[in-house]
Amino acid sequence: MSSQHSEDHSAVKMPCAFEPYKKHKNIGKCLIISNEHFRSPHLRRKGCSVDENNLSNTFKSLGFHVQVEKNLSANEMIGALRKVSKENHTDNSCFVCVLMSHGEEGTILGSDERWLAVKSLTSLMTSDLCPSLQDKPKLFFLQACRGLEYDPGVEADSVEAPGEFFGISDVPEADFLCCYSTVEGYYSWRNPEKGSVFIHELCEMLKDCHLEIIQILTRVNHRVANHFQSYTTDPDTHRKRQMPCFASRLTKEFYLHVPEKKKKLYF
Prior knowledge:
The protein is α/β, with parallel strands linked by helices. It has 5 helices and 12 strands. The protein has a 6-stranded mixed beta sheet, sandwiched between helices. The chain has a 3-stranded antiparallel beta sheet with strand order 4-5-6. Strands 8-10-11 form a 3-stranded antiparallel beta sheet. β5 and β6 form a beta hairpin. The protein is globular and about 60 Å long.
């Protein structure tokens, strides 16, 4: 009688060591594209300047070089990202882009009222087009509606977009993260005087820079989902909620770091 022996040729399992992204001389650049005014006056996004100031102050406090671009057409939005992609980011640890405008699922509106696929913007920062950001985190934050539904569980950043969106991912490759102010299909709320709830909570949570980025964004989700309700005079839009979300293809842990303050010398 012959006996058969089975052997396990699988590799010996080694403990998985997670390392954070490498830190460089500078934390990086933050590009803020903020569309408040459009060809049609009724599309004005009141309260947008509050978000701009909050974002600018927050990212500057984290050591970022902040660039704010206002009221860009669809082509100008592409041009702004393309210009940044050609810059030298060798000494930077990451890149951040904040997009604020009217939106629909997968698209965002230029000041010329032309729709632009979000992926056409994120794809401009891929490693082949911006090699100095290869293997570094590219973070995109979107304050815009992603549909026309109200979350039952002020103003909304939405206008009806023509055509259909076929669900193409906005996250083009590894080391990208896209964080959205709301889940697909729903409105994103903005107060004409106080700005948007998502941007406010994002800036508050980013101040806890000792946390890993996924922890920070999870806390943003928690704050917006549990501490916000719309307040309007319309029963159809009153007491509605909002739920941010994010899609990550980051391959390492990412920590924001505040630049070290120079120690004072006493004589």
